Amino acid sequence: MPQLLFFSRIDDPGQWRSTLARLAPDVTMRIWPDEVDDVAAIDCALVWKPPPGLLARLPNLRLIQSMGAGVDGLLADPELPAHVPMARVVDPLLTQCMTEYVVLHTLYHHRLMPLFARRQAEGTWQEIVAPPAQERTVGILGLGELGIAAARALAGLGFRVCGWSRSARSVAGITCRSTAAGLAEMLAETEILVCLLPLTAETEDILGANLFAQLPHGAALINCGRGRHLVEADLLAALDSGQLAGASLDVFREEPLPAGHPFWAQRDIVITPHVASISHPESAAQLVVENIRRVWDGLPPRYQVDPARGY
Ligand code: NDP
Ligand code: OXD
Hints:
Elements lengths: L2 E5 L5 H11 L4 E4 L12 E4 L15 E4 L5 H4 L10 E2 L4 H19 L2 H10 L14 E5 L3 H12 L3 E5 L10 E3 L1 H11 L2 E4 L13 H5 L5 E5 L8 H10 L2 E6 L12 H4 L3 E3 L9 H16 L15
Parallel strand pairs: 1-2, 1-3, 3-4, 4-5, 6-7, 6-9, 7-8, 9-10, 10-11, 11-12
Helix pairs in contact: 1-10, 3-5
This protein binds NADPH dihydro-nicotinamide-adenine-dinucleotide phosphate (NDP) and oxalic acid (OXD).
């Protein structure tokens, strides 16, 4: 009878409990810390941003299941038990919601909405017509589960879409690039840049002055990867100079974004509170249950994280 430790400060344990009870009545979910009286009885952990050291306190742990797609927070735990397999969420509903977010914000910048918002604030009627999607290139940093789905949706709307990944990829209808040279080629033509990278030592601070300077003047940035991909001062400088015309940010170095942070007052930045896409229990619990069953049967979990790679 598997025992599953649950920890999240933002996800609703009630929804997870009822969904898991329906899908796997033999699994007992125990919310940390109130419901865990015997750490040795815990086999699996379903967690989002657990306190560092918590997982190391579970001596018989067989699976660390992230409640999200990104695992940078888990890998940053200095006491992470390295022998326990870790899996992340790959889920059709999570992917669909991220695609919605990317399409929404790409269209927002494509159709010059930051400019029209300024004109509205001034009470100015100025007829500026956006080019058709066929004349715009959207570049996507990260051609993984989320990046590929967003790329396909944007290509379906007629955009020219490029994507960049660590290994060479091939996706029908998308210009795929890898390597530093490939990134430079993509940036040179990208008017709307979407970041869907995992946060690793290699990708931290990637969205900085050097990268912005390689984009065409007046490009837009959409960051739904992680806050630490972005050098905040460089974004503000790029917006001030006009090198960037606007940005949509869902993730931040400090979350919640502190009161008084300069982003709040920057009219060309759209802020959303890390809600581009979340794991909905009614969909994502299926993978959680499958992974519990797999480790119980001695198999590796699906979507296992490679700690050496960082994602
Ligand atoms: P995947 O692991 O499926 O894809 C990651 C992509 O990034 C891959 O294409 C990978 O390359 C590429 N990549 C990684 N490192 C590098 C590098 N150094 N240089 C170039 N490319 C690199 O992840 P997902 O698509 O599932 O998720 C991506 C991220 O989105 C998550 O890690 C998380 O941070 C963020 N996220 C944000 C959410 C939000 O609400 N804001 C919700 C969910 C996720 P390769 O293909 O070669 O492996
Ligand atoms: C995730 C997130 O990684 O919500 O799933 O950021």
